[in-house]
Amino acid sequence: MALSVDELQQYLQSREFRYYESVDSSNDLAAEWLKSGAPSGSVIVADEQRKGRGRLGRIWYTPPNVALALSVITYPDAQAANRMSMLGAISVAELCDAVGIADVGIKWPNDVLIQGKKVCGVLPEAVWEDGKLLGVILGMGVNIRVSFGDELNQTATNIETEAGKKVNRSQLVGILLERVDYWLARLNSDEFLAAWQNRLITLGKSVTATEQNGRQISGIAESVDRDGALLIRTEDGELERVVAGDVTLRREL
Ligand code: BTN
């Protein structure tokens, strides 16, 4: 069954939200709403998303009735804006905790993994006007009971599979947004950094990072900095800083 305004209202209470049964991308609708002055924390919720955007130019399709696709309107200060991706990952990880899933980790920068499989995607997008940052849309897609093909089955998972029970998607939207609120109020805190870092499964591992421009850096993922960049110690002893991209774990020889 599709989500409904009435049920979402029950869990979102006084929060401003707009619900759509089917959209191209919830991030686009949220960006328009942000430009017309939506309050912080307002959210676009979609049941189906036909042309959702993923990281690094990928497509993220959300089939009807089986997932969450939502975009939260936020107004972080410019220095904190690049922490929104970490915030999304922590919030989804804590949503997984809340439904009783154990061992929920984050693969740098923001993939939430359960037993090595990805359960959600996070895509923050900044909204600019005349060179000024107006705000950031925090887009999150969570797999609840999606049927994956054979190939995706190896790398993706669902909340219901991992929790071993049925869940109420509207209730999950409420829990997720409560976690987003909590961390938005603490974006510059040590607690925030620790919450993200403590979940990172990437640290200490032998990795190859691929930056957006295609440059690859291999070495040991040594640490992260306050902006969420990954610091990789290469074989020749240099410390390389990767701001955005993807990491894959390298097989130990
Ligand atoms: C990823 O590639 O891992 C990120 C995927 C992000 C998908 C979400 S779904 C809601 C929001 N709207 C979009 O168009 N994308 C994000």
Describe what you observe in this structure.
It is built from seven helices and 14 strands. The protein has helices spanning 5-12, 26-35, 84-98, 150-153, 159-163, 169-184, 190-197, and strands spanning 17-23, 43-53, 59-62, 67-74, 104-107, 111-114, 117-118, 120-129, 132-143, 206-211, 216-224, 230-233, 239-242, 245-249. Strands 1, 2, 3, 4, 8 and 9 form a six-stranded mixed beta sheet that branches. The chain has a five-stranded antiparallel beta sheet with strand order 13-12-11-10-14, with no helix packed on it. A three-stranded antiparallel beta sheet has the order 5-6-7, covered by helices on one side. The longest helix has 16 residues, at 169-184. The protein starts with a helix and ends with a strand. 40% of the residues are buried.
Overall helicity: 25-40%
Tell the overall outline: globular
Biggest beta sheet summary: 6 strands, mixed
By DSSP (H or I, 4+ residues per run), the number of helices equals 7
| Distinct ligand kinds | biotin
> In angstroms, what is the radius of gyration?
18 Å
Category by helix and strand content: alpha+beta
User: How would you state the average pLDDT, rounded?
Assistant: 95
Percent of residues in β-strands: 35-45%
